[in-house]
Amino acid sequence: MSDDLNFHMTPEAFRQAGKEMVDWIADYYESVEEKPVIANVRPGEIRATLPTNPPQKGEPFSQIQKDIDQLILPGITNWQSPNFFAYFPSNTSFPSILGEMLSAGLGVQGMVWKTSPACTELETHVMDWLVHMLGLPEFFLSSSDGGGVIQDTASSAVLCAMLAARERITHNQANKQGVPPHLVAYTSTQAHSSVQKAARIAGIGDENIRLIDVDDAFAMRPEALLEAINSDKSQGKTPFFVSVTTGTTSSMAMDPIEQVGQVLSSEIWLHVDAAMAGSAAVCPEFRDMHNGIERADSYCFNPHKWLLTNFDCSCLFVKDRDALIRSLSILPEYLRTPENEAGAIDYRDWQIPLGRRFRALKLWFVIRHYGIEGLQTHIRQHIELAKHFEEWVSDSNEFVLVAPRSLNTVCFAHRKGNAVTESILQKVNESGKLYASHTVLNGTFTIRMVVGQRTTERRHIQAAWDLFESAALEIAPNGY
Amino acid sequence: MSDDLNFHMTPEAFRQAGKEMVDWIADYYESVEEKPVIANVRPGEIRATLPTNPPQKGEPFSQIQKDIDQLILPGITNWQSPNFFAYFPSNTSFPSILGEMLSAGLGVQGMVWKTSPACTELETHVMDWLVHMLGLPEFFLSSSDGGGVIQDTASSAVLCAMLAARERITHNQANKQGVPPHLVAYTSTQAHSSVQKAARIAGIGDENIRLIDVDDAFAMRPEALLEAINSDKSQGKTPFFVSVTTGTTSSMAMDPIEQVGQVLSSEIWLHVDAAMAGSAAVCPEFRDMHNGIERADSYCFNPHKWLLTNFDCSCLFVKDRDALIRSLSILPEYLRTPENEAGAIDYRDWQIPLGRRFRALKLWFVIRHYGIEGLQTHIRQHIELAKHFEEWVSDSNEFVLVAPRSLNTVCFAHRKGNAVTESILQKVNESGKLYASHTVLNGTFTIRMVVGQRTTERRHIQAAWDLFESAALEIAPNGY
Q: Edge-to-edge, what's the strand order for the sheet holding A183-188?
């Protein structure tokens, strides 16, 4: 055997290809506004352009670079376009991309403290920063009994919270014997599907999750929650977990954490899912959505949605970290370390997977590049833009608000009903000039306009509104 | 409100900082061999160098760059050092880093086909490539009833497989009603802790997972499995899931898939966890470890361990994709798309989280850069190196093999017993010249020497062996 390693890319070749990739990315951002937002392809079209078989021999990187433009870009829906208003923003920023580059370059795996102390400690540190930046309770700080951890998504975060709650209420017997049939979880009809998915995964089951009724603003009704809890209790069930949503996926509705907390006895775990809206709490004027957060056992928000940090980066905070760790820790011999036994944080015990990337880097870069003030400006600009859009809808003869605007989200529909609204959305999306998605609120097919991309300016939302108006005129020419 | 976006990093500034980051990464790889492999810090030391509070105003990126070297690097355990022999390799390569850069730059979120068709279709395509590259059964191809999906880790993969099995055996009643108490899962005493963790998460529980005895080579004994299954059946239990390991974490032992398959009735889901060893199947001469794979319902291996692809990238293949999707799919209105209803793949239904990064890019880059032959050479070189090390242990008067060498993993101990072996390992690791980790096999404290880093050459393992020998001479000077 020879030690011939020359089939690997050399550092010199990487320097060249890497710098070309940096330019490619910068070029992409400088031109993404002109690209159709939604990929204009049919299912199977991208695959049809790819060779059936993997190459027997390696190919030059220049060929791969060419194929990015020719084969991949046509199939990209441009999330980072200033005209992307669909789903939730999932924005990013150049400092965050640099953080991802460094994380990929270092290639460390931070499953336990010892496998890269900086990976663990920087994460703990920025999570503590975020507690202060969002005005969250101090019991979420690592210096208290709680602490924060970066998860991939809010789906995994709510699953971890539910597992911690399951083990707390069963005194860790569910981990030992399986899940008893009497546990019941609660969330609202407007909650994200991930809560129900978590209940399935955790062995609770659809029949043991109650979707609580909401009010006119699509926020959970605390009295309906109390009623459901009492009804379950009277039937011998054990309410153990409530997930409230600060900014629902459909309409950015805010469940009243305080009033919900008031109807809960202390053994019930309260999880606050602020995946979408939480980032807005960097501005003190938007923190009222967190009123009552002192009752929460866990809290989650996603910097990868609205805080200029690449997907994936979902921040989960727990009040009692031991409750989380007890529910997720298994310590085989090959993972024992003296530092762990002396109390160093091993984040593998705070999550579903074992391994983990160095995701704190991108968050650290973002916070340092922007500073608190930069992040505040970013949030305020988006909310101002959404206010303009809301005004245009309010003043319109064709469209109507389906829900009150909340932060950066405007939910609206055409006055002539679902079929017209759906046609308008389809026409606008097919133009390639923007991408908005829909939901159904109280039976009304609703267009969701979410202002969240880094480069979105007033001219983009103005153009979006013009598009909706002209599509309305074309599809329903008689107006109101 | 002004549309002043100049608090964001400009594309020009990103071009500069990005190219400097590329050079930093190349420099890192050119110097990593000289760095201590294990970070020489105590818990809390890195945090103590970081400012208590986040910055109010943004900072120049040049300051952040400086802090990478001064504050972060001292806390890095250098996984990508050629002298890293601990845990599993978790290697990477320049093409993979370029793939991560592009994924971060594009910033797409591929939860459903429509949100970036190329993200879904390239993933399906490279997963099909891998079926051919590893010589796996054709029922894992997307053109059959099965298919492949990239997960974050093998922990999540085995959880998904177990959930699919749970729903298949209960006819989807566990998702509806919760988990019945009679389900039992099986794996070996040497299996990765993730199987037990999955059983806890999925509501099966420790008392309903059987850790089956192993033979002298630490491989599962099929007759012991059969005995356990029969015993459970006779007590009214329902065996539903078996996870065999192709390359255990402790000693790279190979459970006999074929013989295990022969004792299983068809309703029991067979999962093959080849997280560590699977990559070796790119070489036909190592595929005998997969003998009997035709009986498997699911199979997982991690390109992020040994196939030059950045963490995270774990490939899960299932024989019946509908079984997986039925167990994980919830379709709220805001995620409905016509393409999904027409049968396009929405990978969100193949995994625990909802969102997903464009991880297929790095895998595509790696396969194309190396070609099948390059990846084969890479695997063969590592196994040759491990063979040399094995010979040195065999010929030694001080050390003894604790398990047969398997692929790239050599398990050895000092003849004078656990205390001496442990002292030797500690001394060698503290030198900073290499990092090896340990396990306990049949009560023997065992050093694991895993050859898996991209740049490891013969001179590195020679130096490693010299280090172990001189530490042995110092700690147990009288030899054998």
A: A147-151, A314-318, A298-301, A269-273, A238-245, A183-188, A209-212
Residue type, B85: F
Verdict on whether the full-model pTM lies above 0.90: yes
CATH no. for B376-475: 3.90.1150.10
| pLDDT tens for each residue of B392-417 | 999 999 999 999 999 999 999 999 99
CA distance B327 to B335: 17
CATH number for the domain whose boundaries are A374-475? 3.90.1150.10
Phi/psi of residue B153, nearest 5 degrees: -145, 170
pLDDT value for B2: 39
* Residue in A102, A249, A372 nearest the CB of B54: A372
Rounded CA-CA distance A336/A328 in Å is 15
Write down the pLDDT at residue A5: 59
Q: Where exactly does CATH 1.20.1340.10 map onto chain A? A: 11-34+39-76
- Single-letter amino acid code for the residue at B176: K
What CATH number does domain B108-356 carry, 3.40.640.10, 3.40.30.10, 1.10.1670.10, 3.20.20.70?
3.40.640.10
Helix axes B154-169, A193-201, angle to 10 degrees: 80
Cβ atoms of B295 and B140 closer than 8 Å? no
Distance, CA of B334 to CA of B319 (rounded, Å): 29
Q: Please provide the size of chain A in residues.
A: 480
* Delimiting residues of CATH 3.90.1150.10 domain(s) in chain A: 374-475
Question: Strand A444-450 relative to strand B147-151: parallel, antiparallel, unpaired?
Answer: unpaired
pLDDT averaged over 10-residue windows placed end to end, chain B, 480 residues:
68 98 98 96 96 96 96 96 93 98 97 95 98 98 97 98 98 97 97 97 98 97 98 98 97 98 97 98 98 98 98 98 95 77 91 97 98 98 98 97 97 97 97 96 96 97 98 84
Spell out where A94-215 has E strands: 147-151, 183-188, 209-212
Q: Establish if B6 touches chain A: CB-CB under 8 angstroms.
A: no
pLDDT at residue B3, as a whole number:
44
Contact B91, B379 (CB under 8 A): no
User: Which CATH code fits B11-34+39-76?
Assistant: 1.20.1340.10
Taking contacts as CB-CB distances below 8 angstroms, the residues of chain B near A327 are 200
B113-142 residues touching A, CB cutoff 8 A:
113-119, 121-122, 124-126, 129, 132-133
Interface check for B50 against chain A (CB to CB < 8 A): the answer is: yes
Nearest to B107 among A45, A74, A310 (CB): A310
Which phi and psi angles does A119 have, rounded to 5°?
Answer: -60, -45
User: For chain B, where do the domains classified as CATH 3.90.1150.10 start and end?
Assistant: 376-475
| pLDDT tens per residue across span A19-70 | 999 999 999 999 999 999 999 999 999 999 999 999 999 999 999 999 999 9
- pLDDT tens string A1-15: 334 557 999 999 999
Provide the pLDDT for residue A1: 36
Taking CB atoms and an 8 Å cutoff, what residues of chain A touch B35? none
- Chain A CB contacts of B63 under 8 Å are 368
Report yes or no: A17 at the B interface, CB cutoff 8 Å.
yes
- Amino acid code (one letter) for B232: D
The enclosing H or E element of A24 equals helix A11-31
Query: What are the structure tokens assigned to B131, written together?
Result: 């079926």
Q: Which of A71, A72, A125 is nearest residue B47 as measured by Cβ atoms?
A: A125
- Residue A108's region, left for phi above 0, alpha for psi from -120 to 50, else beta, is beta
Find out whether the peptide bond into B312 is cis, omega within 30 degrees of 0. Answer: yes
